[in-house]
Amino acid sequence: MKKLIIALVALLLAGAAAYWYFHRDSDKAREVVPEDATAVAVLEPAELIQSLGLKEDKVKKLTMNYEDILEAINLAEPVYAFTTEKGLTGIAMNVKDAEKLLKAISVYGFASEEQNGLQWIVNNSTIGCLDEDKVLLCDASTPSAQDALMDVMSKLMSQGKKEVEALEKVDEQEGVFRLSAPLKGIPEEYTKNLPSGISDAILNAGLQIGKKDISLSANLTTDFSSLPLAPIEGTLAGIGPEDPFVSVQFNLRGEQLLPLLREVPQIRSLLLALNMNVDVDMMLKAVNGDVSFVIPKFDLKHPDFLVTASLANTDFLKNADDWDQVHKLGANDYVFEYEGNRAYFGVRDKNLYITTNVSLANNTRDNAKLHVFNSSTKGKYLSASLNIGQVLDAYPGLALMLRTMPQVRDIADAFESVSLVADTPQNLELSIQTKKPVKDIISNLMTLVTGE
Q1: Which run of H or E residues covers position 93?
Q2: Domains, in order of start, for the chain
Q3: Tell me: the pLDDT tens digits for 253-276?
Q4: 3-class DSSP assignment, residue 383
């Protein structure tokens, strides 16, 4: 019996070793990624198809006339996309049947030419390079640059295994789609008001498909210590609607926030205008702790909001009686009238509330011990959610269309909410929650698209 067990273990080990040996080099497209790649994205086609519950016949139906090309590509292996600092952009795929791929391409009028053991296909500025294991697609900026690009591509096709830093960062991510890319390519006008060093940060992300959610996890390799943020304490006293359209929670140090806001011209102008009536600067400086922003319902005609915030002090109320267009409603409750509108605000138990809805203002004052925060937000740096259903129900035209198209309605109704959570200032997770399994939603969508 002992010998039998040893033999079985040895057989299993040998099988595992053989699988590893034959499988380890099957991903030849990976070897094409340049050493100097600054951004790399990886797609796992087989994993994606399985996660979405796609059937082979549905996939073929979607690809229509390109079925023969799809069959020649090895979808069991990853697809790679990359960009280098010199501007080279490419896509690399593993090939299952090179001869079949060439034949399929020729059907569409693309001739191939052999040079130095490689097959070349040129279509306008796009150049394809193919050997028996892989295909590389790149784009030449001008026709005159094609020769130089072909030389670079030829070297990449034969370079073999190399250590690529961006690719190693991608390997650390999880999901059917993974990415590592620097943010320095983003125009300065979008980053100048963000924390220092953001342009030098690298974004690493992974897309995962669960049973009833689709999530994108991302992290930035930069220092956010200059941001006036802290972990949510979950102790804010305030009240909001049970199922709001938008809910955002974070923890803020107002004294550090104000200088950052003043650096943004539009916000600086707004603060100057508001300070003519209310001492907004002192109010912001007093914020120190959990903050909640809630939009009760999606209503474009009558948008309401509720902001509640923990305060370090209430010094800004000392001159409240002198504020212009502000009327006192209670001990620490006020209404600010502007351009025919009203904003209610006040302080209760060292917690500030601001709202455009008198009912929310009254509830906030009367129920100041109820919590907006739930236990899942505690310790996070950001917790935000959006109710998708309210958006769909808000537009009469859209609602009517959905009623007359049951299949579309079924798909739309399957989506519940979108959430954004930050465990640390560097790590974000964007998730789409669904009421039905993702596979069922995709199946309905495929039926709608293919008409079957």
Answers
A1: strand 89-94
A2: 25-168 (3.40.1000), 183-227+382-450 (no CATH), 229-377 (no CATH)
A3: 888 888 877 776 767 776 787 777
A4: strand
